Amino acid sequence: MNALLILFTILATGLLWGLMYRRQQRLGEDVALRPLPAYTRLQSQIGRAVESGRPVHISLGQGGLTTDTNPVSVSGLHIMDYLAENGCANNAPPITTVGEPTLLPVADDRLRRAYKLAKQSLAFGSGRTQFVAHDTDKFAFAGGVAATLHQENAISNVLVGHLGPELAIISETAVRNGLEQIIGTDDPTGLAVATAVTDHTLIGEELLAAAAYLQGKPAQLASLQTQDILRLIFSTIILGWAILQFIL
Could you say which architecture CATH assigns to the domain 36-216? Predict the structure, then answer.
């Protein structure tokens, strides 16, 4: 078992470094990633916000950065980065809501940095990033986010992070207001709600691939390609083993 683990680690590390080196040598070239409609729609949201004069709303959910929900919260922050940087550059910064204390200062700092990159530091102000309710009260959080959608007259609703059944309240409000929705969560109940209200869902590893799809840095693309190759290798091994056992 230890030998297999060592072999797997060497294989994964070798693939990652090899693909990373290849991507660095081919900077500027397009990379063929599996098309995901949710990311395609996400990339059009700032344009819609600029045309309408209404902000994009993004909620990072109630998953903390110091708990086991860290991966989806970090992915949500990558999506916020994309919306904030493009939004601030076009005078259309997003409205961000969070429901966990560790997310608030990080989200606020990301927005501040986006203003700085757009050379609009003086325009940065409080209110664009809002702490709605603590993670111990999910439905108070949902009610607060729903109220924000009304008050801010959002053009679209992006929900990415740790979100469970409270999604039903938020998404229903968005549906009543005719908002396009993009939803990604690690909670099975939340995903069940999401698939009922929008075609633009991010399921499982699709949400975790946010950085590669939106930023496209060599290390991010190499990591995603490494996962795909390893998945293909192990799927082939499992299928081959199953066929062999059937024959024997």
Answer: 3-Layer(aba) Sandwich (3.40)
